[in-house]
## 1
Amino acid sequence: MVKMESKFAGKILVLGDCQLSDACIQKICKNNGLKKDVFKFIEYSRVKMFDFESLLDTDRYSDIFVAASPHKAKKIEGSTSVCQFLLDYQERLPRVTQLRLTGGSLGLSKNNLENALISSKLLELRHERTKVEIIFTHHN
């Protein structure tokens, strides 16, 4: 008998432009045993007003995925850009993953979202917390 326990908390914050369909995102999540609500998307136009300081020392998110987003935003004083803020404060933030397109620019695609999810701290924590117990029974 195999007994599995897989309770975990956390969400993934996705910053920037998302052109993927809802069905595509749901499929990526389903393939990884997750529901779509594991993602919180902050659209490109809303990134400028997002309170980045609220991400410091938080456990609300396991990961931050960064796609194409504005250079400047609210509450990143002392940093020259959103990406620089995330780099400057990486030790006080959830794991940050930059979503890069084939040409190297920031952007969200089906492949890089799926790859980022597979290597996310969220899934890493889920696997660490999964307890497998194998019980052997002896039959005469």
## 2
Amino acid sequence: MEQYSQHLLTIEGRKKLKLEGVQHVGSFDEKEITLDTNMGFLRLKGEGMHITHLNLDEGSLVVEGFINGLEYMEGRTAKGSKRAKGLMNRLLK
């Protein structure tokens, strides 16, 4: 995976989120968006969320809507699989 040099997250009034360092968008709907960033897996939760800008070449994303929370998780990817589990499965084959 390509690494981006900067990871920057800005929230404006819980209604607009700007993120730099995005590598992959896994899933998105009005209540949840899952992402892989250069700092790990990120889950955004909210209401009426829409991705208004996405540029994976630059690693930038803008989400508008009401942001209720965000959570970084280690050992997980936005593709839905756990990295550690995938590694173990490959080693045991």
## 3
Amino acid sequence: MRQGSDGQTVIHFRAVGVTLLLAHLLLVGWLTLRPLDVPWITAANFELLAGIRADLALGPVEATRRIGGALLLLAPLGVLLPMAGGRVFVSSWVSLLRTVTAGALISLAIELGQTGVPGQVVDVDSVLLNTAGVAVAHLLVVPVWRARLRRRGLPGVRDLPRYRQETRLRDEAPGGSTPTITRVGIAP
């Protein structure tokens, strides 16, 4: 990634983030929304935590594979969504809330999309596990990543608040803003 001035580094982070986000969503869509040719299908699960209990009843190896797969499916969104947003100076809690909400909505959209796909089974626990995976990935990577960007002092990141202020001042009239004086009447 090239380091530039005037926020170029942030723009490159955003471009890479958007590209990786789209690639990941295409992969997830292909994995979860393609028709499967299976001899039989279990019923849809709308009871909270019933799918996780059923996975745990299959034994530790199969439970780890199924639950871990659901946790890891959308986990990259925990990093890619903030990266695509390109915000470095944002509250950690706000970022977590935005990312987890977006991850939950994407997971819900996938589950709703599976209702019309042959061979795919809707499971409410998948939404919970996918959202938890997004939250864990975000908490493990994003705060450290943002702190490192701030600490490294990249030109596009360190100077971003000052750059925005300079841009705002530059966009005003060439001589500055028009002064206003109280108690001066308007000429006829």
## 4
Amino acid sequence: MASIQSPNSSLPTNQSVSVPVLGLGVWKSKPKECYSSVLSALELGYRHIDTAAIYGNEEDVGKAIRDSKIPRKDIFLVTKLWNADQGYDSALRAIDRSLEKLGTNYVDMYLIHFPVSEKRKESWRALEKIKEEGKAKSVGVSNFMIPHLKELLSSSSLVPAMNQVEFHPFLNDSKLLQFCQEKGILLEAYSPLAHGQKLQDPRIGKLAASYGKTNAQILIRWSLQKGLVVIPKSVKSERIRENADVFDFQISDEDMKSMETWNEDFRTCWDPTSVV
């Protein structure tokens, strides 16, 4: 994808916002390391930060953004509604808590973190109001599979701007990607490195050697060329820099086709496929 030239390259959504294609994920980042990693990422040119209420580090993300001196309007900030807060009234209260911790009066995108049974419809109704009130510029979902998306679309005229799911060559859900693309839902890949559990696969190493890149850079570039937003997580500045150094090469069509055969439905995180 020749248009993807820098971390600030962005993809449009159906809700009049565009999402920087590369972001920093902060899941499991402890307070001090979360603060320093966000600050490092912003200094290195990242403009997309992804957190969540359940991560317990919204305050640190907010402080790092303020201390970076980068204008708030130039940073795409995402947080998420946790399962315990799902439901209409509780979701409305949850966004206010998140905004207070982040030290901002809006987020650029607010996501339902997981498709909780019997609550996700009311949660989405709350997100519609949250967007209407300007507390979130856009709203979307996370860990939603096709049945969950179909249910949502059947009861709401507001289509999610984004669906954030685990996605990498070893969990390459082509049916979900195709469905999201058909409905105008941007797909975002979390755990794009499969939590490091597949980084030593010799097929990745062979490609990395041929392109003069690291194994992690090959996986991140694959997601970008699939048309995904990608949010690798790291707390080390050298890794954060490495993860962003993926805009000066392109994986060939032949190699992309080869990587398409690697899928083995390998999940390293939540499995929402059985949630009804």
